[in-house]
Amino acid sequence: MTEVNHRLIDRWFPVAAVDDACRTPFGSGRVEKAIFTWFASRPIAQARAAALTSLLPSDDVYRDDVEIAVRQGDAAAMARLAEAIRETHGGRSPSVLDMFSGRAIIPLEAARAGANAVGIDLSPVATLAGRLLAEYPARDWSSEPPLPFAMADRKTSIDALLPVVGDEMVYRACSHRLLRDVEGFLAEVGQRVVKRVESFYPRNEIGRFPWGYLWALTMPCDGCRRRFPLIGSMLLRHPYRRLDDPGQALRLLTQGDTWSVDVIDGSPDQAPTYTSAELTGGKRRKGKTARCPFCHHLHPLDTVKGKGERGEYRDSLLAVADQDAAGARFFRLPTCQERDAATNVPLNLAVNWPYSPVPDEIIPAGNVHTVMASGYGYRRFGELMNARQTRLFIETVRAIRSVHHDALKAGISRDYGRALTSFAASVLGRQLKHATRGARLRQHGSAEGKANNRVQTDHVFANEASINFQFDYLEVGPGAGSGTWASVSETACQSLRKLLDSGLGRPVRLRSASSTALPLRDGSVDAVITDPPYYDMIEYADASDLFYVWLKRLLFDIEPDLFGADTQHADGLQNKNDEIIVRRVHEPGRVRHDDEFYERMLATSFEEARRVLKPTGHLVVVFGHSDPSAWTRLLGALRAAGFVVTSAWPSRTESGDAEVSSIRVTVTIGCRVAPSGRPVGTAAQVDLEVAEQVGARVRQWDADGLALEDQLMASYGPAMEVLGWYGRVINPDGSEATVEHYLAVARRAVRDAMRLQVDTLPLESFDAVTRFSLFWLRAKGRGQVPKGEALFFAQADQLRLADLRVRVLAETKAGFRLRLDDPGPVNQQTSIFEVARAMAHAWEAGGAEAVAGTIAAAGCSPGDPHLWAAVSDLAMHLPASDHLALSMAGIKRSSTTIGTLVRSVAVREEQLTMDHLFGRDG
């Protein structure tokens, strides 16, 4: 069958199906994301929809099967679609490239659709994640010899790993060879780790390991010089009324120059020593402070950080997180043996890898916002853990490598050994996620005791992609419990089982390389489907260097193309100079990753995509960002690389996961290489066409229930479609219209198409400042808006931020927010919005008479419909409890009285004027 250029994505995309599926376990990709820790990924539903619609011909006959495949993952529908895709491409499997593959969600779905998929990512950590998801599970390992680790041999020590399950791990009957061997490999690693570290983790009274250990950093007091612990919470467990469980807490005791803690039943009866906003002299301090329990001297945050810079912190074991024979968890004080074992841990080991056993790689300067501990004096990755945590990970690496060695001796292939060891590396990574001095104790339940009060270790990426740091942290041991090897292994195997059961396509080829120099031949790819880095939202390499420093010690000769010595950057970390992001902080010695860098590198990447695409190929870009500046750069890069947008489909794909970028809506953008001979357009003509195209989409978005804020972002797609019809668009002065201009036109077109009314009056009938302010109120409320987006709001009304700053916008570090405070004196040049604000504050100060005076000073008539419409709109679109909304409601109730007062003020002023004219003012 002859290839055709038009694809289904050019005309249709299963928007509603993607929206619905992303809220389900299948469509969200929860299983796929659990294979390896990474910081952003496409939901399976959107990746599947993008792959299918990019490869299928533009024919409505396929819509039903696409909907079923996206909503339900139906295998029969996927098989029919894969056959149709093969027929569309002349009886062969099409080739698909994702040049920013991350954990390879998009290549996985392309392979499930029958394509030969290739994933490229600059980060070796992300590339490993992709191999574990989309390559190794899809390969046939049935001819491999059995592993030498017999499950019967595990009976003696498995109680140390899974005491809650019993004395023997059940070797599950499983049709998947890979899963059986991964389970056996991980269990063998667990046993070897236990043997290597059990002298550092004394067993409890029933012969098992406690699951966790609560630590705190201590520092010397500037007032009395005595050392004290920095404890951010005295709570250990909430109460739980249903089980008559009173909960547990810490109590800090002092005697002479020493301190100690006790574990008590019940809720905390003391304040923490490190807490927010101390009251001093009636004033509240900014930031956190540390209070000495001996002399009560307060240490502001800068002083506390200075202690770390000078190396004055010390780790101190506070409590042990244990469990009884029935699995019930509780806290207790450590024994003397446990204290000694925790603090006497040697790290000068001989290891069989070409690096120091403790990661000595330096955390890049200025990286405080990503590796937060570096702001407290910790300069190397090996310093992020205490000595015992570090020893546990060193021994885990040694154990994994020894199991890999023994498996190879038993005759398995090097490829299979690499796959099994890399799955063990993924478990190591998930353990790292629950380690370092950033892992806090997470208490479920509530102080009222109404909910289950289970406890666990939290992950260090609680703040999206920043590695957390805190002074009181939880260490997990070698036994069973949240974050331990046994627990994480169990989760990994469950995820792998579900992945294998869900069905996979042919293995994806994953390589670590730069998107600006793709290792592919010209014209070799049928489709490029990709999800570029999200501008300034995630610093992928910096956040994953914690994994990298350990993975290279484990896999340097097992995955040498990812972690070998010749793949490393000069600082021993990942390559960040070529990472296509905007960095929030410029670091010395590093390429400046600013807006221009981002757009230039993206354009180069898209030029590479154009090079490797076949003439009939499509480029599909999935992107989402709340800042229009990010869109300006992305769309500008596409245009500079010679692509035109053919379609844009918004989907509500994200739910604000703590580990991924928090975007509610992403847009799937279809692109083709720009045809030659496109006409030159005039700005006036193209502006009208953009407005018409966006207006037509708004009707559909309304039907789909897309919120106003989301429609503003979605409007960029149709605007770029129209712009792509022309080779150039010329302004009246002869200059060329910019992408930025058309994003502003698109946003204005959304507002105009919605025909917004303010208490029956068209929004367009208000003055520009009021129009801007009321639209902002509806879209953003009291929320913070990045500067780039605020700029686009202003441009939609042909205003400048300089015209709005101070008058109706307040600038903050996060951007701008709408001012709803008292604007001060008003006059006839004051906007309606500012007059309405002044009325609200006049009401609070002097009631109806003061409001009447404000209206008169502004030169408004008592019944000015625009003024009263603005009052009604503010009352309606602010929370009912908002003091401004309450004032507006009071003003509306008193409108008749206020009108009478305004008229009397006007009569009085007129009389005073006449008296002055006729000399009667004396």
Structural class, from helix and strand content?
Answer: alpha+beta
**Side-by-side strand order of the widest sheet:** 18-2-1-19-20-22-21
What is the radius of gyration? 32 Å
CATH 4th-level superfamily of the domain at 8-139 and 507-539 and 579-674:
Vaccinia Virus protein VP39
Give start-end ranges of low-pLDDT stretches.
151-175, 278-282, 655-663
What CATH first level of the domain at 8-139 and 507-539 and 579-674 would be assigned? Alpha Beta
**Termini gap:** 100 Å
Number of strands: 28
- Give the proportion of residues in helices: 40-55%
| Annotated CATH architecture of the domain at 8-139 and 507-539 and 579-674 | 3-Layer(aba) Sandwich
Shape: globular
Main sheet record: 7 strands, mixed
Please give the count of helices.
29
Mean pLDDT: 87
Beta-strand proportion: 5-15%
CATH topology of the domain at 8-139 and 507-539 and 579-674: Rossmann fold
Write a brief structural summary:
The chain has 922 residues and is α+β, with helices and mostly antiparallel strands. It is built from 29 helices and 28 strands. It has a 7-stranded mixed beta sheet with strand order 18-2-1-19-20-22-21, sandwiched between helices. Strands 3, 4, 13, 14 and 17 form a 5-stranded antiparallel beta sheet that branches. A 3-stranded antiparallel beta sheet has the order 5-6-7, with no helix packed on it.
Which features characterize this protein?
single chain, 922 residues, alpha+beta, Rossmann fold, 7-stranded mixed sheet, 5-stranded antiparallel sheet, globular
